[in-house]
Specification:
396 residues, eight-stranded mixed beta sheet, three-stranded antiparallel beta sheet, 14 helices
Length: 396
């Protein structure tokens, strides 16, 4: 699987691969897996040059030899990556003579670079800068995608082992205010793991509308009339984490209103991931922020790794959620090829998860791309808008 950490996650169920000719291949799986075809749609399943892949081995990801409209020209790690047109591309020739990617770590600098002309297009500029970007005459493309941002809890530990407490915390969060005032419209309030446009999304679950009075009642019912104190682990940045510190501060204020005192512990992204990977028990975690982006856009590739009991650490089910009914529904959905049956099973699982409240559901992020007037024919992918496709893009 090379250096790709999710290789086994997407393709680990493959038992055998057999070529059936120049344009046909047969995959034999270890067990029924309805999501497998969707796994083949991720970018890491794209067709590559086999000679280069075999020659480079595990280092292939650092060199690349794909079959897209652009090819690698040069790469200075941490500084810039340059693409040039692929003369062997089978489709329409790309319209750009060169594409230069420059990492801009601070989101607040991206809007400035766009306005100054240092960059023609930026991904995820600071939400607070969007109005200024529009006022300058630049375009902001925005679309919600299969993403979830939540607060995890250690379900093995009191008070989080109480479903009443977890429901209370969900009622205490003002999601609408967070998406409006912290994210500036770059997120959609969440009440379940799957986003609204995903297969299996259940539009009829409890939305956990902001209700601090009900939250306090539930805490009292659970035996915590005066609340409690807990530590929230917060990364200072990270993939898909939106605005982690500001969001944590808003959530801290919401929970203070119902008597729950939250101590925010900020750490760097690498250390944060290490602790999350250990699991709540080994890392002695109480609460933490986290996000997940379903690049294959299949419900099993969100619900399975994050909430199935088979995914307890070292899997991604960091908080040790376990519900036999949810497990059975997820297994049944993976074993059927009927899309309508899968949708119904996942909707039932979503209803159970919503009621169990293993997380504090917060929001589904939107993909945000801002670009100058000189950039033409750019469109966000309607299925997975977080992939930035420059195939048909040109410059005036």
């Amino acid at each position: 699987m090379g250096l790709y950490p999710f290789g086994a996650f997407f393709f680990g169920d493959i038992a055998n691969v057999t070529a059936r000719g120049s344009d046909q291949v047969t995959f034999t799986l270890k067990s029924p897996e309805a999501s497998f075809l969707q796994s083949l749609t991720v970018l890491t399943a794209a067709i590559v040059n086999p000679k280069v892949a075999l020659r480079e081995g595990k280092a292939f990801a650092l060199h690349g030899a794909g079959t897209g409209p652009y090819m690698l020209s040069s790469w200075q790690r941490g500084q810039q990556l340059i693409l040039k047109p692929n003369p062997y591309y089978w489709g329409s020739k790309p319209k750009l003579s060169e594409v230069v990617f420059i990492p801009i770590v601070q989101s607040s600098e991206r809007g400035t670079d766009l306005e100054s002309g240092t960059a023609n297009m930026v991904i995820n500029p600071a939400p607070v800068d969007l109005s200024q970007i529009r006022a300058a005459g630049d375009t902001v493309a925005m679309q919600a995608g299969p993403h979830i941002w939540w607060i995890g809890m250690n379900l093995l530990q009191k008070p989080f082992s109480s479903q009443l407490v977890r429901q209370a915390l969900n009622y205490a969060i003002n999601r609408s205010a967070i998406t409006k005032n912290v994210l500036y419209g770059t997120g959609v309030p969440a009440d379940q793991p799957l986003a609204p446009d995903q297969l299996g999304y259940n539009a009829h679950v409890n939305p956990y509308n902001y209700n601090p009075k009900k939250a306090r009642q539930l805490l009292t019912q659970a035996g915590y009339p005066h609340g409690f104190t807990a530590t929230l682990l917060v990364p200072t940045s990270g993939s898909g984490m939106q605005n982690p510190v500001s969001m944590a501060t808003a959530i801290q204020g919401n929970l203070a209103a119902i008597g729950v005192t939250i101590k925010i512990q900020q750490i760097d992204w690498g250390t944060f991931l290490s602790k999350i990977g250990q699991g709540a028990k080994s890392a002695n975690l109480q609460m933490w922020e986290l996000s997940w982006m379903d690049s294959a856009v299949d419900p099993s590739l969100t619900l399975g790794p994050l909430l199935a009991s088979s995914s307890w650490p070292p899997g991604f089910n960091t908080g040790y959620y376990k519900n036999p009914q949810v497990d059975a529904l997820l297994n049944q959905a993976e074993a059927t090829s009927s899309i309508s049956q899968r949708a119904a099973l996942y909707q039932q699982a979503e209803a159970d998860i919503n009621q169990n409240a293993p997380w504090i559901f917060v929001d589904h992020a939107k993909s945000v791309v801002a670009y100058q007037k000189t950039v033409t024919d750019f469109k966000l992918n309607p299925v997975f808008p977080f992939y930035i496709n420059l195939r048909g893009v040109s410059m005036k």
